[in-house]
Write a structure and sequence with these properties.
30% strand; 276 residues; globular; 11 strands; 28% helix; 4-stranded antiparallel sheet; alpha/beta
Length: 276
């Protein structure tokens, strides 16, 4: 099954409790290794982080159940996770509550906001938007707003790192295919449709989840993703005031290609010297 991402309004209410099971192939340690390596390589910020004791502040846009936030907290970041699904944030906060007080992950901050209209009280040292969350912003203006906000809240020299599902992934791998998963505690059916004209992929998901009394509860969700062209993304980043540092293939340091299922974009807010 393909990765599910978390930003469509009103989606994921029924999926929240089993979301981590659906994401079993997504290793937060591997993703944190990759993002941290990009941050070390491409960030040009000159000052200590804005977090406690100079720790860098991480902004995770579309944080879902918080697994990436918790992993980055253990690596010395102070994470702020934003998601529009309160059900997903409930799962994230529960994970933090279950940690010992001395565990860095227990201090993550989670906010229920729309990532295309978010508000913060200060600047951040790294912003991430992962697992094709940007594709879930199906209106181009939402993506442009997201980039403008990141440019506003990033410290000089700091990075915005995000990935996009490619045309190959949305039009071919998902395409018009039916997926299903049958487990002891749930069954999930996923009918996908891809519209070549507007480049929107629509997933109609039906979940049957086993309740404590043995009954199965039914949840129906519809999730949409738009395929975005690289030239548009590059233009919108430039208009927002961010410089595109590189575009890489799926979790690699190789340049992006049409054969990839996912592309990673690394953009940077110019430092003071570049802006003057």
């Amino acid at each position: 099954m393909s990765d599910l991402s978390v930003t469509n309004e009103a989606a994921y209410g029924g999926l929240a409790e089993i979301y981590d099971l659906l994401q079993i192939d997504v290793d937060p340690v591997q993703w944190a290794d990759y993002i941290e390596s990009l941050d070390r390589r491409y960030s040009s910020r000159k000052t200590p982080g804005d977090g406690n004791g100079g720790r860098p502040i991480l902004l995770d846009l579309g944080c879902g159940t918080g697994s990436f936030c918790l992993e980055m907290a253990r690596r010395g970041y102070d994470p702020i996770g934003i998601d529009q699904s309160e059900s997903m944030l409930d799962q994230a906060r529960r994970k933090c509550d279950d940690l010992p007080a001395e565990d860095a992950g227990s201090h993550c901050l989670f906010l229920n906001q729309d990532i295309s209209q978010f508000e913060l009280y200060g600047t951040v040292d790294l912003a991430c938007c992962l697992l094709d969350t940007v594709n879930h912003l199906i209106q181009p203006e939402q993506v442009r707003c997201l980039f403008r906000l990141c440019a506003n809240y990033l410290n000089h020299g700091s990075l915005l790192i995000f990935d996009l599902a490619t045309a190959r992934h949305l039009a071919e791998t998902l395409g018009n295919n039916l997926f299903f998963e049958d487990q002891a505690d749930y069954s999930l059916f996923w009918q996908n449709q891809y519209n070549q004209q507007n480049k929107i992929s629509t997933s109609e998901i039906t979940l049957f989840q086993k309740a404590a009394d043995g009954r199965y509860l039914r949840f129906d969700e519809m999730i949409e993703e738009r395929c975005y062209e690289s030239q548009d993304i590059r233009q919108w980043l430039e208009i927002a005031g961010l410089e595109l540092v590189c575009c890489l293939g799926d979790l690699s340091n190789q340049p992006a290609s049409e054969a990839d299922e996912r592309h990673f974009y690394v953009a940077r807010r110019p430092d003071n010297n570049q802006e003057n």
